[in-house]
């Protein structure tokens, strides 16, 4: 199995003003960059000039950086808030820009919530969508309940120790699945690659 670095982008899934998930995404992006086996790139749905009148496979040509990153990617991390038990429409719009580029690649979720449940419902909703897109969903999630109480004014996690083992388990599982799926894409025949 290849021991090359895994390319695993991170997608921040909300364009809202004052978004707490931005702080989570920056923190998690930093943790991913600390790992020797991960190369990453941060994408923000805010930066996508999304179409208002058409979605189809030909539209991906309008988003070459996203298309090329996901073609190369071994996995994806999605950081998203939970809005009314679901995920932001902008996140769905960005995910819908591609399809074959996602097949047989790992995806892991970091959910952000102002309430005590920490985004468990948004993860449940994203599992169905991700499966339909061809992703293989990891079973280790990161949840940030009451996110407004977790970070200081500088964007630093107040209790880093509380998340030390969680983020390690999250990234360990993502790396394992990304490596296994890369091996499969490179060595096992499939009509998708």
Describe the structure in your own words:
The structure is a single chain. The protein has 193 residues and is α/β, with parallel strands linked by helices. The protein has a single domain (6-185), classed as 3-Layer(aba) Sandwich (Rossmann fold). The chain is 37% helix and 15% strand. The protein is built from five helices and eight strands. The strands form two sheets. Strands 2, 4, 5, 6, 7 and 8 form a six-stranded parallel sheet that branches. A two-stranded parallel ribbon has the order 1-3. Strand 6 (106-112), helix 4 and strand 7 form a beta-alpha-beta unit. The mean pLDDT is 92.
Rg, nearest Å: 16 Å
Q: How many structural domains? A: 1
Largest sheet: 6 strands, parallel
Strand content: 15-25%
CATH topology, by name, is: Rossmann fold
CATH class: Alpha Beta
Which of globular, elongated, flat, extended, rod-shaped describes the shape? globular
Helix content: 25-40%
Summing up helix and strand content along with how strands pair, one would put the structural category as alpha/beta
CATH architecture: 3-Layer(aba) Sandwich
Strand/helix succession: EEHEEHEHEHEEH
- What distance lies between the first and last C-alpha atoms, to the nearest angstrom? 18 Å
CATH H-level superfamily = Flavodoxin domain
Overall pLDDT = 92
Care to count the β-strands? 8
């Amino acid at each position: 199995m290849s021991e090359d670095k895994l390319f695993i982008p991170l997608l921040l899934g909300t364009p809202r003003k004052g978004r707490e998930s931005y702080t989570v995404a920056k923190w998690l992006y930093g943790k991913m960059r600390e790992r020797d086996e991960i190369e990453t790139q941060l994408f923000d749905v805010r930066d996508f000039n999304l179409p208002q009148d058409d979605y189809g496979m030909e539209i991906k040509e309008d988003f070459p950086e996203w298309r090329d990153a996901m073609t190369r990617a071994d996995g994806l991390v999605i950081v998203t808030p939970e809005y009314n038990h679901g995920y932001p429409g902008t996140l769905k719009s960005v995910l819908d820009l591609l399809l074959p580029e996602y097949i047989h690649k790992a995806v892991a979720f970091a959910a952000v919530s102002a309430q005590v449940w920490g985004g468990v419902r948004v993860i449940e909703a994203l599992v169905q969508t991700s499966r339909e897109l061809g992703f293989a969903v990891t079973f280790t999630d990161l949840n940030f309940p009451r996110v407004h109480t977790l970070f200081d004014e500088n964007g630093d996690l107040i209790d880093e120790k509380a998340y030390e083992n969680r983020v390690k388990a999250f990234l360990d599982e993502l790396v394992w699945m990304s490596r296994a799926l890369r091996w499969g894409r490179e060595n096992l025949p499939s009509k998708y690659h």
